[in-house]
Amino acid sequence: MTDNCLLITETYLPLAYLNAWEYCPRRFYLEYVLGEFQTNEHIILGNHLHRNINEENVIQEGDTRIHQQQWVWSDRLLVSGIIDAVEERKGNLIPVEYKKGKMAKHLNDHFQLCAAALCLEERMGKSIAYGEIFYHANRRRQQVNFTPQLRQMTEDAILAARAASTGGMPPPIEQSKKCQACSLQSICLPVEVKQLMKEP
Ligand code: SF4
User: What pLDDT is stored for residue 199 in this prediction?
Assistant: First the structure.
């Protein structure tokens, strides 16, 4: 890693934490601010599925050139991170993320992909219309259009996450389904904390 990359990783918000922010602000705080980490079956499976694309590489598939594990950053938004792949098709650049779940409306994944596209646009000086997310669970690709609304929501999320990182720890969220899938549940203790918050 170059000195420039080292400086960026120390001061820029990592793209993956933007995903955590949209999933749950408390999870973001626990991971990014307090450095908590705990694995569970979802994380192990996700790492396993990334095993073939976790190194920088360039491959050609038909008329598509695939750049795997591309490091990108934005000096304007102060975010940085790695895109799983950037595909070059007919002169267009298409950022691609690989996720273990099923295709659905995962706004956290859309924010991460859109932020990656904003970084790529800044680095390459060209506009990117859409990206794609490959969901392993049902082996489907979802096209995510980088609409003005999604771009604005992503930039708002970056600002909110950055501001939250200097504040206090957010309370647990109300969505128990997310908590059940969250690897930090035993550290966060959402049920217990919510019960304590109710007590006078
Ligand atoms: S257990 Fe729930 S409230 Fe706690 S960090 Fe995870 S998702 Fe957020």
Answer: 83
Per-residue model confidence as pLDDT tens digits over 13-47: 999 999 999 999 999 999 999 999 888 887 787 77
Which atom of ligand 1 is nearest to 24's Cα? 8
Residue bearing the CA closest to ligand 1, atom 5: 27
String of DSSP letters for 125-166:
TS---EEEEEETTTTEEEEEE--HHHHHHHHHHHHHHHHHTT
Q: Tell me the best of 182, 183, 187, 189 to mutate to test the pocket of ligand 1, counting ligand atoms within 8 Å of each CB and taking the most.
A: 182
Token reading at 89: 């098709």
Number of residues assigned to the chain: 200
Q: Which among 92, 96, 95, 155 has a CA at the least distance from the CA of 127?
A: 92
Query: Is the Cβ atom of 184 under 6 angstroms away from ligand 1?
Result: yes
Its pTM stands at 0.87
Domains observed in the chain:
3-198 (3.90.320.10)
